[in-house]
Amino acid sequence: MLRTPVHGTRLDILEWLKDPAAHFPPRHHADVLAHGVRVDLVAAKLGVSHRAAGTHLDLLASIGLLRTSRVRRRTYYRRDGVRIAEVARMFEKGW
Predict the structure, then answer these.
(1) Contact status, residue 66 vs residue 78, Cβ threshold 8 Å
(2) Distance between CA atoms of residues 9 and 15, nearest Å
(3) Secondary structure of the chain in the HEC alphabet?
(4) For 75-84, how does the pLDDT look when each residue is reduced to its tens digit (9 = 90+)?
(5) Residue from 50, 66, 87, 76 nearest 15 by CA
(6) pTM, whole model, 2 decimals?
(7) 39 vs 57: CA distance, rounded Å
(8) Per-residue pLDDT at 45
(9) CA–CA separation, 78 vs 80, rounded Å?
(10) pLDDT in tens, 1-53
């Protein structure tokens, strides 16, 4: 995780996913609060390609800051608040 570059875009994504209902439109097949958001919504909000948004989301998921779930063959991303709090505590302790 420490090798992952801190990137403003990734911090924005984490911030938006604190309250996805406020930052992303509702979806017909999945609840943004329960399931998270899809790559296409993040890409549209960032103004980048689907691939670029997917890279950011996959990286955050691979280091444990996001959780993924599958609904109707689509991947949804949401914050892992417990993991984020653990990481924050490690840095507060001077790790």
Answers:
(1) yes
(2) 10
(3) CCCCCCCHHHHHHHHHCCCHHHHCCCCCCCCCCCCCECHHHHHHHHCCCHHHHHHHHHHHHHCCCEEEEEECCEEEEEECHHHHHHHHHHHHCCC
(4) 999 999 999 8
(5) 66
(6) 0.82
(7) 8
(8) 94
(9) 7
(10) 445 556 789 989 999 999 988 998 876 666 667 778 999 999 999 999 999 99
Q: Which two tokens stand for residue 12?
A: 């924005």
Q: Which tokens belong to 53? A: 């948004």
Beta bridge partners of 70: 75
Backbone torsion region of residue 64, taken as left when φ is above 0, otherwise alpha when ψ lies between -120 and 50, otherwise beta: left
Q: Could you count the other beta carbons within 10 Å of the beta carbon of residue 50?
A: 13
- Cα gap 28→63, rounded to integer Å: 29
Q: How far apart are the first and last CA of the chain?
A: 13
